[in-house]
Amino acid sequence: MALFGKRRDTSGDAIDAFWSWWSDGGSGQVAMADPETGTVALLDPRVHAIDERLAWEIAPGSAAAHLLVVTADGDPEVRAVARRWLAAAPQADFVWSYADSRQPATTIDGRVLKFDGHEFDLGAVQVGVRRSGSRVDVTVYHPRLADVAEDQRLGVCFVALDTALGEEMTETWIGELQPVTTPPLDGFGLTGLRAVVRDLREEFTGDDGRPRWITLQGTGPRGPVTAGAQVPLAAASAPQLDQHIVVAVPYRGHNDNGLPSAAALTELERLKQHVTDRLEEQGRVVAHECSGGVCLVHVYADGTTPAADQIKAAVTGWPDGTVKVDVESDPGWSGVAHLRG
């Protein structure tokens, strides 16, 4: 892994400029502009000045008249930028509210999706669902899906699920997504899929509102592995945490298989809590895996903060040997993909 220090958020000036313009009359200009041409002229250059990969849309708000969404549009490289744009937003009022991902539609029935010259009544969508660990794999059918070029069908399905579930829920809880041109056995509509995903989220959310943890076991290069991971282990659940920090902690107390003893587990938990305390909301421990006398603690942090330096300071003086800290940019959380339940 490459080593990085705190990096400068080069989009920060453009974010500041956007909200300065918005507060100085831009919000009113957008509200009064022609929705087909005027809003594009006003918002396109200012959003793309933050990052050209960002997308935007204006939708009806739930508590406000309008919802302004600036989204990474599925690109993990700019999710953190969109979240920082949202973090700098003014307080919502009766005219405008803000989001950094597409929100679910209030209703599905009667909603028409327009895609590449085709129209899809979302009430006619049928889905088949199969539980896959902490996610669900989904097949999507619509009577008009066969009219779309095969290489465009997946895009239709993603937009349909984003409309039904919202962008964050789709990216967090949906595993494999497959378009089909015949109705799935025991299929049901998108409203039913909402209920499935809602129940899945509740299953893995603790009473305190935080993600639950699962225990995993397997075999690796060092022998047997015992691991733990939060669910969901998905970047969309905390897009501002785009830096992967791996803390390699040696432990002397272990059994014949190289797995930590009860006493060693207690000390490792204390170290993880100490790291969490030192992060001060700039990051979080999301997983760990222990094998062969070494425990890898996986931390994701906001790369614009000094989180990595704080962790390095927190692990000095570990009695069982030298703790190594490696840091890399990883906005898609690929470094823990093997630990997703």
Question: Could you explain how this protein is built, in words?
Answer:
- The protein is an alpha+beta fold and 341 residues long.
- The protein has three domains: 12-99, no CATH class; 112-203, no CATH class; 212-339, Alpha-Beta Plaits, CATH 3.30.70.
- It has eight helices and 14 strands.
- The protein has helices spanning 12-32, 38-50, 79-87, 150-165, 167-173, 190-203, 262-279, 307-314, and strands at 55-60, 66-71, 96-99, 112-115, 118-121, 126-132, 135-141, 174-180, 212-220, 223-231, 243-250, 283-291, 294-301, 324-329.
- Strands 9-10-12-13-11-14 form a six-stranded antiparallel β-sheet, with helices on one face. Strands 1-2-3 form a three-stranded mixed β-sheet.
- Helix 1 (12-32) packs antiparallel against helix 2 (38-50).
- Mean pLDDT is 92; it is low at 1-8.
- This is DUF695 domain-containing protein.
- InterPro entries: DUF695.
- Residues 235-334 form the DUF695 domain.
